[in-house]
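Feature request disguised as a bug: please show the residue count (112) next to Alkylphosphonate utilization protein in the output. Example input:
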Amino acid sequence: MSELPPCPKCQSAYTYEDGELLICPECAHEWSESGDAASENVIRDSNGTPLADGDTVSVIKDLKVKGSSSVVKVGTKVKNIRLVGGDHDIDCKIPGIGQMGLKSEFVKKVAE
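Example output, currently without the count:
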């Protein structure tokens, strides 16, 4: 039986294979066996579609704007996004609200 590598996130030795992915049962981190560093840094939308700078996305859930009584409604289209690292994956300008940071888990990519 082949030796599986430890989890790159928490260093747990209890990793297991699930198809092409390796999974850590302790921290739920998933990664590919090829170990591509670039594949781990890909930002994906709520459906798992990779996002890129300049894409158009649609909001999938009503989002309250911090420090304001405004709400970003479901279905709001956001054009020309910019991907960034950190807590919020996406920097964008939302019509009627202005500059904002969004998490990629609350958007889906729109076919252009």
